Each structure stands twice: as C-alpha cells, then as structure tokens.
Amino acid sequence: MEKIIKGDDVIVITGKDKGKRGTVLARVDERHLLVEDVNVVKKHQKPNPMRNQQGGVVPKTMPIDISNVGVYNAATGRADRVGIKVLEDGKKVRIFKSNGELVPAKA
Q1: pLDDT tens digits, one per residue of 8-54
Q2: 3-state SS assignment for residue 91
Q3: Domains along the chain?
Q4: Calpha distance 97→100 (Å, rounded)
Q5: Is beta strand 56-61 parallel, antiparallel or unpaired with respect to 64-65?
C-alpha cells in the first residue's frame, strides 16, 4: 500500500515551491508525483499542424520527488507523515502519524 496516492491533498515541504498546496494528479513512478500547480515550467513548443497544436511557450507540470511533499492534515493545518495500520478485519488503512486519525479516502 502506498502512503501517497492519486487524489491526496499535499503540501510541498522543500524546494522552490515550498509551502504550496495541491492535489496529486498522478504517480509517474515509484518516487515521483505530478501535483497540480506545483513545479510548473515553461516549455517552448514547436507548432504541429498535424495535431492542430499551436507553437509558443506553454506551461507544463513536471514531476516532483515524493520526499519533497507531505500529506496535508486538515486537523493540524500542516503536512504530516503517513503510516499504515492493519485493522482487526485485516484491512489496511492509512493513518496520520501525529494524531492517529485516518487519512480521508479520495475517490
């Protein structure tokens, strides 16, 4: 079970976008995430008439390392570490390390 999944609300804890909050759009691989409005770069794109793409400078969201973000805990208003807990029925759930509450599940 992964500690940070698609749909989680996260805060950047280090780097040029420190303090920004966003939602995880996708997991690129085991160590990298795409977070909305975080780590946005300007890409110079050539026009491609076959795909109806215009040329110019377009913003593009780049992956950020998973170690640079923390899951947002609404109770504390800060980033928090996440742990895995096995319930009595054998089901695994994610919990916040600071207060032991369940991480809210996103659809």
Answers
A1: 999 999 999 999 999 999 999 999 999 999 999 999 999 999 999 99
A2: coil
A3: 9-45+57-96 (2.30.30.30)
A4: 6
A5: unpaired
Query: Any residues with CB less than 8 A from the CB of 64 and at least 6 apart, and which?
Result: 12, 15, 17, 32, 33, 34, 35, 38, 39
Q: Which two tokens stand for residue 61?
A: 């969201």
Give the whole-angstrom CA distance, residue 38 versus residue 71: 14
Residue 12 to residues 50, 53, 100, Cα–Cα distance (Å) = 38, 32, 22
Burial track 40-62 (b if 16+ CB lie within 10 A, e otherwise): eeeeeeeeeeeeeeeeeeeeebe
Give pTM, 2 decimals. 0.84
Return the percent helix, strand and coil in the chain, to nearest 5.
Answer: 5, 45, 50
